[in-house]
Write a structure and sequence with these properties.
Elements: H1 2-24, H2 26-58, H3 80-86, H4 88-123, H5 128-145, H6 147-162, E1 170-172, E2 177-183, E3 187-191, E4 197-201, E5 209-210, E6 216-224, H7 230-246, H8 248-251, E7 259-266, E8 271-279, H9 284-301
Antiparallel strand pairs: 1-2, 1-5, 2-3, 3-4, 6-8, 7-8
Helix pairs in contact: 2-4, 7-9
Amino acid sequence: MAWLAIVSSERSHGLLALPKYLHEHSRVLIEIPLRILAIIVVALLFRAILIRMINRSVRPLRVGEVPRILRPFKERVENSALFESTGLLSERREQRAATIASVLRSGVSFTILVITFLLVLSELGINLAPFIAGTSIVGVALGFGAQNIVKDFLSGMFMMLEDQYGVGDVIDFEQAVGTVEAVGLRVTRLRDETGTVWYVRNGEVLRVGNRSQGYAQIVLDVPIAPNADIAAASAAMLDVAQQLRGEQAWTDAFLGAPEMQGVERLTREETVIRLVARVRPPEQWRVARELRRRIRERLDRLDIEARLPTDPPTT
């Protein structure tokens, strides 16, 4: 019976010691886990609220309205009616808003994750100085290894914020010229006139020509025989352009009256006369083709000999 008394005494002693142990280690067993849990819950809640706000700012309140996320930024589409009628303006805004929202969501998530991680480490009593030094070294190593990716993303971000070009624009990347089909943070996709799809990394773009912003200028250099009547040819070309502008089907494409600039070049083989007209992009190619056709027909009727150009016309 003695051994039962000993066991009973040890059990009672252990039960009495448990509350004392919990009391002495309550900070490690209860307080710190609860604080860490609270930090994580608050971080997740805060992130969910911010992400929801960003997502709501991407969607326009009404059809055709600029998304709220784009209102602080400049929009370079001046001929918005033409883009809106083809649906390109909405697509352009949607892609731009989605890309900017993606950057904001990634930035918010990364910032909250880092702050939460540091707060949790602080609650655990871990010295952050060696950790910060180590992450700095890792960050530098990753930076050297991913320079091109970082460059692409930064270039894409600034290109989006400044609205240098967007869906529907005709742009010239020097190596590739075509219509923009999609714009991302890392890559821009465009399709040229032959149907070839080009993927251009944003970090590789040193300069870009946008043929769809503001206005387009048609420059028609028409070569005629060196002994042809320059005045008659110039008058005929200008009259054709003015008649085209006056027609209902073409008048909206023009932004001003056509201008005859006169003789551009004189050689033994030809005399080159230049006509210019300011039009709405991307109407410059359609208007230029119609002008060339009508000018050629008019010169033929007037028996003014036209020469085949040695260089392709500049538009």
